[in-house]
Specification:
Length: 801
């Protein structure tokens, strides 16, 4: 489980005061304070998100001059070229300006450079080309603030220039006629975080009024969300109003994009924009030409827009395929490089799409939680994209290597550069050397930012409704996450068409609250363990068949142990998987190798590191010792406990106790230190190359060997229960019922062996899932000997100590 970073919150009295003033719960008040909202007036404005959030556009430096230049252009019918960027913010900002200027009679056209042949921003050839076609005014939007040379050329060629850009301005600005950038040092505009789509809206507001600007809110919302600017103040207002327009009366282009993204009959949120609409629009510039995206927005009928949207959807599918190929190839390279022993990740590949390597780098960071550079190699100049983790300024790291680059730019969390292939080895050496000196082990542990701790009693429909008022969510206004501990999960099951959703429930003050974990299906053994859990979650509203219920969306779940009772619960969960480990050959009854270390010494070695250790255990004595040491040493927050298998999306390299593994689930190169019991068949864990063996008992010391008569008695008991077994029931319930009939102790292991043996003999069939089971008996049974079952013969060979 990731580290929980608790956001700093005010004094409880301040929370209560704000809660009373706004008429909200203490939890909602705490969330608001965490966002810097500590007064009733500001809180009311935030929750209402009304017109009072919108600033006067004429507060922005040079807005009067911008309006005057537009008026002059229309009056004199001067030709305007809007020069943009190929990302979503660039496309949407160009679209807003073009549609507005066209609507008021301007002679206007657009130019968006090609990512692959021209690159980002203004370039000399494009400026000359635009001038040769008779352009009188260039409006560069989402670029231009650093284009000193290019704008000098534009002026020399007789064009007026307006720069509309939100990027950080340099000390020496280009010699443009008008510069609109709220980040200029002398600009008094109160909100500095507008993206270029937002700046386009401000121009329309200034020239045509707020009603004219409202026509473009749907397009502006897409650009604002996609550019990951803070969703606060004006940005939040424009996105909120834009989402309303997207869901009610979007332009043809937005409607078409929404349709191909699967939201035709569904309301969309900021998240839907970020993960549904924006990637398809971005794919145009990444895979072909961003002009396709622009033309979709400019389409004058739905069919034309939809035809282009279908093309964007195909681009996005192609982009995802290429991204997956890069990711898969890079994963293999990263694994070979033993990522557990590295602090950064550098992945190289021949001819990788330069428009996709940045997305691939982000995926590597998400998987490994290490700064990553993905390099697309070519014969002459290679192109690279870099992404980082919190606390590590990748721009500064790359500055140590800038003499190796032919082109370089970026910021603390993302950067790009080009270099000759011959310089790659030296770059990797310096980059790794810098990382070794500047990245600590703690920085490599991912953290989840949580608001406050909640108890189940705090969670109700009222809280979920209050939190929904904080939408739209995005940068600096993320969906609130909470944590709770000592949760008791009930009825844990796997659901969903793809069987990738974990569902469970918790009790809250007498009520039952549903919990769902999308993509968390392989945490079923964690959720099914009766030991208490700690969890990170959001509090959502779920609407189903006209019923509104509160629901917890699980982001992370972890078994916690604080008492001997908790330890016993984990031991029981482990031993419930003994049959699977026996059947798959992972747990053996005789010692396979000599012990090299005691359990106590092993724990001390693990405790010295906050990550990178894996302990594989399959006997109750060792697990009891280990978990007791975890409690005594207060080590619970630094080690995860998993039963049977390691979830695919667990935190990379987190210290882990894996109890009773029954499948090959250990990723290569993930753990620096691996400890196995003397009774683990390590050959089954193919990716484990180096390991230390600790002393242990046989996992089978807990079982009682059953003879032929016992098998017959348990089969007869099952047959007697046949009418009940045709329907799903709990595995433990069947064990208890069989135990009552045979008049003696029966374990889960016993029952699973008996079921497995008689299934092989074709006496019965059964299905089991998530602790549930149903059994069907064959109508025609052919008499067979127990020894005709391979499972029975292996069972008989067990040595029980």
């Amino acid at each position: 489980m990731a580290v929980i970073n608790k956001k700093s919150i005010a004094d409880p009295q301040d929370i209560c005061r704000l809660a009373v003033g706004l008429g909200v719960s203490n939890a909602t008040a705490a969330v608001l304070i965490n966002r810097g909202i500590n007064s009733e007036e500001i809180g009311r404005q935030f929750l209402d998100c009304d017109d009072s959030c919108v600033n006067d556009p004429f507060e922005m430096l040079s807005m009067y001059e911008a309006v005057a230049l537009i008026d002059e252009a229309i009056e004199e019918q001067r030709r305007i070229t809007i020069y943009g960027d190929y990302d979503v913010d660039g496309i949407t900002s160009v679209c807003i300006l073009y549609k507005y200027l066209k609507s008021i009679g301007a002679r206007v056209n657009c130019y968006i450079p090609n990512r692959f042949t021209e690159g980002y921003g203004l370039n000399m050839d494009a400026v000359a080309k635009i001038a040769s076609k008779g352009t009188d005014i260039i409006i560069s939007i989402d670029c231009g603030i650093t284009s000193v040379t290019e704008i000098a050329l534009a002026k020399e060629l007789g064009m007026d220039v307006m720069i509309v850009d939100h990027h950080n301005p340099p000390k020496d600005l280009p010699d443009a006629d008008v510069i609109l950038n709220p980040k200029q040092i002398d600009c008094p505009y109160p909100f500095k975080e507008l993206c270029s789509a937002g700046l386009a809206i401000k121009i329309v507001e200034a020239h045509g009024g707020r009603e004219a600007a409202a026509e473009f809110y749907d397009i502006a919302a897409i650009g604002t969300v996609a550019d990951v600017v803070p969703l606060l103040n004006e940005n939040r207002y424009y996105v909120k109003k834009g989402i309303e327009k997207i869901n009610t009366s979007p332009c043809f282009g937005v409607k078409a994009l929404k349709t191909v993204a699967g939201y035709q009959d569904k309301a969309i949120s900021a998240r839907g924009i970020a993960f549904g609409l924006a990637p398809r629009l971005n794919a145009a510039g990444r895979m072909s030409s961003a002009k396709d995206g622009l033309n979709m927005f400019l389409a004058e009928d739905f069919k034309s827009a939809f035809d282009i949207a279908v093309k964007l959807n195909e681009y996005n599918d192609e982009r995802r395929k290429i991204e997956q190929e890069i990711y898969t190839t890079g994963m293999d390279a990263s694994v070979i490089g033993n990522m557990c022993n590295k602090k950064v990740n550098v992945v190289c590949g021949n001819g990788w799409n330069k428009g996709v390597i940045g997305i691939a780098a982000s995926r590597f960071v998400e998987q490994y939680h290490r700064p990553t550079v993905v390099i697309s190699c070519a014969e002459d100049i290679c192109t690279a994209s870099a992404r980082s983790i919190d606390g590590f300024d990748i721009y500064l790291a790359l500055c140590e290597c800038k003499d190796l680059f032919t082109k370089f730019g970026g910021h603390s969390q993302a950067a790009g550069f080009s270099l000759p292939m011959s310089n790659i080895p030296e770059f990797i050496r310096r980059f790794e050397e810098y990382a070794e000196a500047n990245i600590t082990e703690e920085m490599l542990i991912p953290a989840i930012e949580c608001e406050i701790k909640l108890s189940p009693a705090d969670i109700d429909t009222r809280l979920a409704k209050e939190l929904s008022l904080l939408e739209p969510f995005g940068k600096d206004n993320e969906p609130p996450l909470f944590w709770a501990d000592m949760l008791e999960f009930k009825n844990a099951v796997v659901i969903g068409k793809e069987k990738n959703v974990l569902k469970a429930s918790v009790n809250a003050g007498g009520a039952t609250i549903d919990c769902v974990g999308f993509g968390k299906a392989d945490y079923i053994n964690v959720a099914g363990c009766s030991a208490p859990k700690s969890a990170v979650f959001s509090v959502d509203l779920n609407h189903w068949q006209g019923v509104e219920k509160v629901q917890l969306a699980l982001k992370d779940v972890k078994i916690t142990v604080r008492s001997q009772g908790d330890i016993d619960a984990v031991i029981n969960a482990m031993e419930s998987r003994l049959f699977e480990a026996f059947d798959a050959g992972f747990a053996v009854d005789s010692s396979v190798c000599q012990a090299q270390v005691s359990v106590e010494d092993m724990f001390e070695a693990v405790k010295a590191h906050r990550m990178g250790s894996l302990i594989i255990v399959n006997d109750r004595d060792t697990l009891n010792k280990l978990l007791s040491l975890v409690i005594i040493n207060d080590f619970g927050s630094d080690i995860d406990i998993h039963i049977g298998t390691l979830p695919k999306n667990h935190e990379f390299g987190a210290n882990t106790i894996l109890a009773m593994p029954y499948e090959d689930c250990i990723p290569a190169g993930e753990f620096a230190r691996v400890y196995v019991s003397q009774h683990t068949n390590v050959e089954k864990l193919k990716e484990i190359k180096n390991y230390t063996v600790y002393e242990s008992l046989s996992p089978y010391s807990i079982i009682t060997k059953r003879d032929r008569n016992s098998f017959a008695a348990m089969y007869k008991a099952l047959h007697e229960l046949a009418p009940k077994l045709y329907q799903w029931g709990t595995l433990q319930g069947v064990v208890d019922a069989v135990e009552t009939i045979v008049g003696g102790a029966v374990s889960v292991f016993d029952l699973k062996v008996v079921l497995g043996v008689f299934k092989q003999l074709e006496f019965l069939t059964f299905e089991s899932q998530d602790g549930m089971i149903k059994v069907s008996f064959s109508d025609k049974i052919v008499k067979r000997q127990l020894t005709q079952s391979e499972l029975f013969n292996r069972y008989c060979e067990l040595t029980v100590q």
